[in-house]
Structures are given as C-alpha cells and as structure tokens.
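=== RUN LOG ===
request id: a7f3
mode: sequence -> structure
chains: 1
length: 309
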Amino acid sequence: MQHGKYRFIVGFLAAPLALYALFVIWPFIQSIYYSFTDWTGLSPEFGMVGFDNYSRMLDDEIFWKSFQHSLILALVLPLVTVGLALFFAFMLNVGGRRRRGAAIAGVRGSSFYKIVYFFPQVLSIAIVALLFQFAYNPNSGAINSVLKGVGLGSIQPDWLGDPDLALICVMVVLVWSTVGFFVVLFSAGMASIPRDFYEAALLDGASRFTTFFKITLPLLWDTVQSGWIYMGILALGAESFAVVQIMTVGPSGGGPDYSTIVLPLYVYQKAFRDGQAAYATTIGVALLVLTLAFAAVVTKLGRRERLEF
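=== RESULT ===
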C-alpha cells in the first residue's frame, strides 16, 4: 500500500519536475557554461576563454553601476512597498471607527479601496511605464503641469533627464505598480486573524499602534517575509528591466550618465545590442548570485518561531 502511494506521487511529480529541469535548470547550467566562452550569440562556433569574462566584468565600470542600482532597488523597494502595503491593509481591516457591537472594524468601503489599490496590478508593466513616462515629461507632463497650476512654475524638473532624480522616479513607478498586490495579500492574511485577539488587547488598554506590532505583524510574519523576498526578486528582475528600458533608456542606455542602468538591462544590451552573449551570461551569473544571496539573507534574518492561532 505504501509502495503504491509513493509510485502514485512520483508519477504525478515526474512530468512537472522534468519540465522544470528542462526549461529552468538546464538554461541556468548552459548560461554558466557559456560564461566561460567567447560566444557572440550569432555564430555556432565559440572557444573557451576561462575566467576572462569574469575578469573583464570586475573591471567594468558600467557593470558596477548597474550592480549598485540593482542592489539599491533590492534594498529600498521591498522596504517601501511592504511597509506601505502593511499600513494600508491594517487601516482597511482594523483602522476604521468603532461601531456598535464591535471593538474594532475596518474602514467603510474597504472592498472598494482594495479594488482601487489592486488596479495597477491589472495593467501591463509596459503600459504603466509609458503612462509615467508621459507624466514625467518636463514640457507637457502631468506632474510639472500640476506644479505650474499651484503656483510652483519655477520648479520644473527634468525628472527622467536628471541623474539625481531618474532612479528615484523609477522606484516610484515600481512601488505604485506593485503595492496594491501586497495590500490585497496582507488584507487576506489579516482577515484570518481572530478579532478576539484585538478586542482583548484593546480592553487591556493597548493602542492600535501596539496591536499592530504585538498581534498583526507576528501572526502575519511568514506572509510578510515571503512578500519581501518576492518584491526583491521583482526589483532585481523583469519589473526593473521593463521600467528602465521604456522610461529612461536614452542614447547611452540606462538613463543620463547610466544613472538608472540595472543588471537585467545591461545583460540585454550586451546580448542583443552588442553581440556579446558570453559576456552577457557572465553578468547574468552575477545577477543570479545577487538574487540568491538576497533571498538567503532575508530568509536568515527573518527566521523566527512560527506562531499559530
């Protein structure tokens, strides 16, 4: 009976695992292999060059700029996005005025607000980037028009053309486009926390600020940790690539003076613009190491005793 059970499980897992190995694991192995070659991506012929690509990468100033920007995104975006999402979700579920017969309550119309927050998630990230590109336009964009309308016409920044502002503008777009997903995610988690916990704490004189840190956050910690890792991976991957590529690419690529260049975009440029596929895979290996290190550090620092209710 037990043997038949394992055969049944293996039978169902074999095909998915084989597909995962073929389309995920094997490309990673190939990329690592190609990083030791001089492959251009266009010719079937290539030779082994050892660690030359890695030596070149360590001396590449643009690589270090892209690495720095990707690291900033991985550190800042999860902090801001998850923090805002927790605040909004807590207000929607627990932050309303007390009603008759209930010690705590969410704000009125919380379902509507969840839809509003989640709406950017429905849009393609490419569409979001285009919309904000128009909004950031220094001549006809919505932001500078609003500043001019409220009497601040002397303040007309070139949002995406200023090296000091461009990366911040990119981060604003990424936060706006993803925070709604985490609001809904955390709201679902908070809705499962028994109301008795909050009512007992409030009867003992705890403030809502205290209940957030003593009840909500500990019971929601696993979800928060998963969201933190997921947001960091988005910041290091396709989301940042799409926004930077569409909004700030410019003639040099990666914004003015490479002020917004990130690792995924630099991989793309080297592989498809410059015909240096082997060097691109080398940068991709560095991105893989950074992503795994980020996930490992967050998992290690966020490890704590599991609370159940």
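=== NOTES ===
The chain has one domain: 59-301.
The two ends are 35 Å apart (CA to CA).
=== END ===
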